[in-house]
Protein 1
Amino acid sequence: MSQEQAANSLAPKKKNKFKRFALFFLLFVILFLFIYYFICGITYSEGTRSGVLIKVSKKGYVFKTFEGELNIGGVNQGEGTFMPMTIFKFSTTKKPIYDSMENYQGHKVVLKYRQVVKNFFWQGETDYFVDHVSLVK
């Protein structure tokens, strides 16, 4: 067998190994992305919070997100002791909710939210997503 024939018989094996590696790598990446997407979509908790809506903004350089802050308030524990106010930071992905929150700013509201395990970077800065907002009369 000449050297040229020996070199040609080795070339397909290298290509075959590379194709197999590329296929396994691609399947691994697809599986990883699927698992990450599944984890980001899981709702960890859901509930409501009420307080004074103190901040609503649209943030981001490339991916614009709707962010807000709710002042839940402090607690008077008697004898002149006062627990400082608690701020609840949240995000929303829905423009109509953001528009209604702009009108409710400075008023007492109730927010219905859900907390995800991990959020995608284009969804918002927090893991809390508001699905509904209502004004307290």
Protein 2
Amino acid sequence: MLMANQSISKKLIYSDLDFIDYQEAWDLQKIIFENRHNNNINDIILLLEHPHTYTLGKVADKKNLLFNDEQLIENKISVYEIDRGGDITYHGPGQIVGYPIINLKDWKEDTHEYLRSLEQVIINVCNEYGLSTQRKANYTGVWIEDRKIAAIGIKISRWITMHGFAFNINTNLDYFNGIIPCGIKDKDVTSLEKELNEKISINDVKEKLVNQFYNVFGYSALEIISKEKILNNFLIHST
């Protein structure tokens, strides 16, 4: 198991899981969550892409899922009812999903500040691409005017975080037509590719996200761990 290093006060582990099934990643989050709660590991952030998936949060209105069963099958979209906050959203190729599993007792025991800081990470990355983004009153996420470029939905239990953000990079935005994203009817969605009118390197954005997360949350050391090692240590050894 990947043990916490008590000699380093604020160490962050980062793993790029590349492309991974939603259920597999959710199972992995739960296992890492328990390990973080038991202080077996340091804070960790996972960055990845999912196959086409709709997820409904705890308070989601199922009427916001517009596709019927036949359309879901035709478009090869999986649907999960999950334990995060927020309504319905889409995950898919070309979108970077971030799952920070961190202990807020080592940072700030403040859910609102955590949400705002996740938004700040993405705002800073967008700024690196020359895009002016902002927050919107009464909504979470990151916006370019009335277009949402990143959604945020989290779970915090015992001050340990799960779930996180979905940042549209080269995302096929047509898949948002099957839902009312986050239950918001009068707003649009966008992506880095759409705003910049060019394909964007997913790996470059991941690097920027990790750097910004590291700085915004005030870490002093970074350890990069491969997908294979993460899965071997947590998923395989837990079965």
Protein 3
Amino acid sequence: MMLPALLLQIPAPVPTVAAPPESVLSMVISSGPVVKFTLILLIFFSITSWAIIFFKYMQLKRAKRTSGKFLQNFDATYSLEEMLTKPTTQDGNPLYSIFSAGFSDILRYRQARSKDPNFKGKLHLEHIHKNIRRSQNDETHKLEQLTPFLATTASAAPFIGLFGTVWGILTAFFTIGKEKTTSLAVVGPYIAEALVATAVGLAAAIPAVIAYNYFVTRIRSLAKELGDFSTDLENRIEREYF
């Protein structure tokens, strides 16, 4: 007769709840495949964007420095042939590339005349102008390379992060219906991993949009410098050789 009374005194077992993740990293590792794929994609965008940022910064800095020195020599010379005797940094120097493209026909013409005094060829100013403008466009394109990826990251990363957030919240609501409980200990990890996706998306987008706007301003300034130099070079070639 004592056994039923003792059984009534035994407390009912408490349902166990999975322990929450101890850190953000462990929470990400234990997240679902969709959220995990979203985070990996955002991390890829972030790492690639930072690599482009460092590369473009060094590229534009080198182009500005070398072009400035070249332009000083160009303005200080009395004839274009003097530029051939001055030391010039060729690597990353867009003005040198334009100068070489514009002066190439003149050099070939001089070499042909030195080999054959009876050479009847002529210099064509239109062709020289075409070479200069083509080289200018090529150098501008080199300066603009990779910046579209920054714009893509800035515009797409927040929405990719939002997708991970929405999926995490859907998983949280599915868990509420499955477990029939609104306990924060149950749905909290799903909501947390959803917010992590949003945070990672913003972390990838914010530096990309700042860097993109900065580089676009620098590239426009350099592109204007290339255009002005191309015009000056055309005028000097026409004045000295035609």
Protein 4
Amino acid sequence: MSIPITKAVLLAAGRGTRMRDLTNDLPKPMIAVRGKPILQHIIEGLRGAGVNRLFIIVGWRAEVVRQTFRDGASLGVAIEYATQVVQDGTGRVVELARDFAGEDPFVLSYGDIIVEPSNYSRLTSLENGTEAIVTVKQSEDVSKGGAVFVNEHFELIDLREKPQPGEATSPWYNAGIYAFRPSVFDFTARLERSPRGEFELTDAIRALAQSGKKVQALELSGDWADVRDPEILAQLNR
């Protein structure tokens, strides 16, 4: 038994300083890949999987996102917005979506992740007993993101952000798209600042898994890209 997910939260508040001049006038999720903004690729992929209510968290150059997508009608979805005023990490920003989620499960995606659209339909239901899904890719450099540690059932047992040389590591890289039940807010509310000085969503996910809740890992299929720098952007637009 599973519940279909029709809501999604998209994190689009960051400037993306590694993009240099490209984000002087627009947030990184609005950079064009293959002729349209990254965020539009995500919205259209989710819509194709039955997700029609979206909550976009904006910050840097927020007006660009709002003016482009407005209420979502032109893309066949309904969009609401919230503004992240203080850039203090991905854990605290998710709190802004608490009222939007209500009692419903939701997909959450970073606004700079492009995947094969067929993957979204694999995220839009949570089986009974599964509290969250964390997507993963193999053969990525985990020092640039999160290393996901799993058990024999491919359930997440630990998640470490940018492990340093010498630390335990894993072949599974956190791919930046999730599905959550609202219970995740119990864990984001208790977050403390990480060594980087931020409230990290990954810390909340680790606490969720280590509380005894089932957090399923899901390997994405096909192409995946974290559009983190101009070099990756250039490869995608070739």
